[in-house]
Each structure stands twice: as structure tokens, then as C-alpha cells.
Specification:
The protein is built from eight helices and four strands, in the order H-H-H-E-E-E-H-H-E-H-H-H. With 250 residues, it is mostly helical.
Length: 250
């Protein structure tokens, strides 16, 4: 628990510094690597949650599976236009491995861990509805992450187009599918092992992480004129988290 708290405090420190630098456009080009470290820290918190919740062995294996599977899917998307649409990563999100940023795998761990808690609170019995709620939670997050990362930061380039800031609808469909499948697998694991979802500090920390990540991107969206993404994501996130909190375990 002490190590987990230490990582969380480091994340909060990195978060505050990052928000200040990005908000006032003070982040120099040579410090772009800090954004990757930020996502790695967020992913580490998700992995630590899984290890605390399901045990070190299973939690670490689950985190590794999420990292590897999403890394492969992202690589297939960038190389063969699989699932998400046609896009390419730039060197601004380095370090890259096989053309895919290392931080992407960690980001997916964070996305799945945080949306898992919200979805499980909403549908404590699990099943298809839980997996769908997890997928929706992931898409809500991407509604603000993708426009900011694409329009503002230039982390990737879309070759397909769409009405939503030039992002194709296949991207959000892909996010839902990948997240739905991962949540469904977690649901099967929980039912097989007999785990119940709790409302303790680790779960609340994941919901806080979900909100903090989205809040930072909403702020960047507002600063850079992405008002539709910022306002729409704010409304959807508020409703999603409010529903989860209302149905939280007591």
C-alpha cells in the first residue's frame, strides 16, 4: 500500500506540473517525453489496482495482457488500418516500438482499470451490461483525448476523416469494441474466482483517476477552442460518474 501511495503522489505531482505547463503553453519541445511518463504513471496505477484487487499474480498477468493485446491492436490499426481506421503515429509521442508509442499500452491499462470500477458499480452483477458500460466509459474518455492528441498535440495523423474534428467514427467504434472485450474477459475472471466489487479506497482512487484524466484534457480542449469536445465530454462524464457513485457499494 505504501508503494502504491507513493506512485499516486508522484502521479498527482506530475499531473499538477503538467497541467500548469500545458495550460500556459510552457512545455518545451525537449520535455515532450514527460507526457509519455505521465501516461506510464497512470497505467502503473491501474496495474497496481488490479494487483491489489485480484492478487499480484493475476493482477500483473491481467495488466500484461491488456498492455500486449492493445499494443498489438494499435499496431495493426496503424499498419493495416485495422478496426480504428487509417492513422499513423508521429515521433512526438516517442519512444515508439514497431511504430507504436510505448505509452499507449499503459494508457489502455488506465482506461480499462478506471472504467472497470465505474461499470462494475453500475452493474454489480457483471455480464454484458457491465462490459457495455465499460466500453461506454472508454469511449467517453476518448471523445476528449483523441481531439486534443490529434488537433493540439499532433501525436497521430488521421488519414480517414469524420465530422468530429476530422476523426472517423470507426475510431470510437474500435475503442468500444476493444474495451468491451477486455471488460467481458475481466467479468469472466471475476465470476470464475468469485470476486465481489468493493467500494473501498482503491476503487475510489480509480474513479478519481478517471475524472482527473478527463478533466485535464477538457481543460486543454477549452484552451484550444475544442468546445464541442470539451462541453460534450463534461456532460457525459458527469452523468457517467454520478450514476456510478449513486450505485456504489455501501
Amino acid at each position: 500500500m505504501r508503494f502504491e501511495n507513493g506512485v499516486f503522489k508522484l502521479f498527482i505531482f506530475w499531473y499538477i506540473i503538467g497541467v500548469l505547463l500545458l495550460s500556459f503553453d510552457l512545455l518545451p519541445s525537449w520535455l515532450e517525453w514527460a507526457n509519455a511518463v505521465f501516461l506510464i504513471l497512470a497505467g502503473a496505477l491501474g496495474a497496481l489496482y488490479f494487483m491489489r484487487r485480484f492478487g499480484i499474480g493475476i493482477g500483473l498477468s491481467l495488466s500484461a495482457f491488456i498492455f500486449i493485446s492493445t499494443f498489438i491492436v494499435e499496431g495493426a490499426g496503424a499498419k493495416a488500418d485495422f478496426l480504428f481506421g487509417s492513422y499513423d503515429y508521429t515521433e512526438r509521442f516517442a519512444p515508439n516500438l514497431f511504430g507504436v508509442p510505448i505509452a499507449i499500452g499503459f494508457a489502455w491499462i488506465m482506461v480499462v482499470a478506471t472504467s472497470h470500477v465505474a461499470a462494475r458499480w453500475i452493474f454489480p452483477k457483471g455480464g454484458i451490461l457491465y462490459a457495455a458500460a465499460g466500453g461506454i466509459g472508454a469511449v467517453i474518455m476518448d471523445l476528449i483525448i483523441d481531439p486534443v492528441a490529434y488537433e493540439v498535440k499532433g501525436y497521430w495523423i488521421w488519414e480517414d476523416t469524420g465530422w468530429y474534428y476530422g476523426i472517423p467514427w470507426t475510431n470510437f467504434f474500435g475503442w468500444f469494441v476493444v474495451s468491451f472485450v477486455l471488460h467481458f474477459l475481466i467479468d469472466l475472471l471475476m465470476k470464475r474466482k468469485g470476486w465481489d466489487i468493493s467500494g473501498g479506497v482503491p476503487e475510489k482512487r480509480m474513479l478519481l483517476l478517471y475524472g482527473l484524466m478527463i478533466a485535464m484534457f477538457i481543460l486543454l480542449g477549452l484552451i484550444n477552442g475544442l468546445y464541442l469536445a470539451a462541453i460534450g465530454t463534461t456532460v457525459l462524464t458527469t452523468g457517467y460518474l454520478a450514476l456510478a457513485w449513486k450505485k456504489r457499494p455501501v
